Structure formats: structure tokens, C-alpha cells
Amino acid sequence: MRADYHVRTEFSDDSDYAMEKVIQDFIAMGLDEICFTDHVDYGIKKDWDEPGKMIYRKGSPGEPDEMPLANVHYPTYYETFKKMLALYHDKIELKLGLKFGMQAHTIEKYEKLFAR
């Protein structure tokens, strides 16, 4: 089985690779399975529905001048994945995940949150 479980899409702030294009390219390369692992970095980036002002970074070449420094927009990410699953389920196994980053200054906060 040929698989890649470390795939970013346009839902990560470090990629502009459209989910459908990823799937089409990986099918063409003969992969059997992929898992999308777009970034969530609590303590650094905000969630889209989080109160307060959104943080922006300078856009890279080919991007708008300012890019939101935000975690995955979960509803859109999931809905897009479901559409891709419906379109490509018979050609490639698709899995949905997230890559969680934890910053040192947020570890104590989350340790308290999840402490028993």
C-alpha cells in the first residue's frame, strides 16, 4: 500500500494546495490512501470564531498582501472533505486529521484544562 499521512491543503496557513488538486495528483501518482493533516496551533493562531481581532501575516509571493494567521476553519474543512470523499471514494482512501502544535507557553494552560 502506498500512503501519505502528512498532507497539507489550502486550509493550513503554510499551503495553498487545493484539497481536490491534492487528491487528483495523488491518484495520478498511484497512491492508495492519504490523510489530510492541516495545522492547528493553539497559543499562536486563533480559531476563526474566536473573539478578538484576527492576526495577519505578510503574504508570500502569489498570496494576498495579508494572510490570516488562523487555525483550520473546521466547518469548511470538514464539508470540503465530505464532498471530496463523495467524489473520489472509489479511487483513493481518504482520511481526515489535524496536526496539533502545542507551544510551551500554552502547555500549562491545557494541562490544567485536562487534569483529572
From TrEMBL:
GO molecular function: histidinol-phosphatase activity
EC number: 3.1.3.15
Pfam families, A to Z: PHP
The keyword Hydrolase is assigned to this record: yes
Top enzyme class: hydrolase
Gene3D superfamilies referenced in this protein's UniProt entry, alphabetically: Metal-dependent hydrolases (3.20.20.140)
Sorted UniProt keywords: Hydrolase
Domain PHP: 4-113
Keyword Hydrolase on entry: yes
Full protein name: Histidinol-phosphatase
Origin species: Blautia obeum
